[in-house]
Write a structure and sequence with these properties.
Oligomer: single chain
CATH class: Mainly Beta
Number of helices: 0
Helix content: under 10%
Largest sheet: 5 strands, antiparallel
Structural class: mainly beta
Radius of gyration: 15 Å
Strand content: 35-45%
Shape: globular
CATH superfamily: Jelly Rolls
CATH architecture: Sandwich
Number of strands: 8
Order of helices and strands: EEEEEEEE
CATH topology: Jelly Rolls
Distance between the termini: 29 Å
Strand order of the largest sheet: 1-2-8-3-6
Length: 121
């Protein structure tokens, strides 16, 4: 297991990531074989660019506001809101204001299971 945080102790992760003008800052909360949790800090106007992940993904806005583009639709998301995606969904995140976002990626090996794993509906 890899992490940028102290383990086995409580912490306020929002205090452990700072904004950088014009940048997207990423910190690894947890990284293991089965998935990854990342904490992202977006400066106003910064975006990820269109991309996808071969995993089930949940994006949670913890602070600020972002526009989440998925399947041609734009979703205005504020603190407390989240979106869940199937593997290989092309998406983009753009900060409307400075924002902190938690991304949870769970690796599912659907291709390895003839019956599937259920993560795609």
């Amino acid at each position: 297991m890899k992490t940028d945080f102290e383990i086995n102790t409580e912490l306020d992760i929002l205090r452990h990531i700072d904004f950088v003008d014009g940048k997207l800052v990423a910190k690894k909360v947890l990284d293991c074989d089965n998935g990854k949790v990342m904490l992202l800090a977006f400066d106003n106007g910064v975006e990820t660019g269109a991309h996808s992940a071969a995993a089930c993904v949940m994006v949670q806005v913890l602070e600020g506001e972002v526009v989440f583009e998925i399947n041609g639709a734009q979703h205005n998301m504020k603190a407390g809101q989240q979106i869940i995606m199937e593997p290989n969904t092309v998406h983009n995140v753009r900060a409307v204001s400075r924002a902190k976002v938690l991304v949870t990626r769970i690796n599912c090996n659907c291709a390895d299971k003839p019956e599937g794993c259920g993560c795609q509906g």
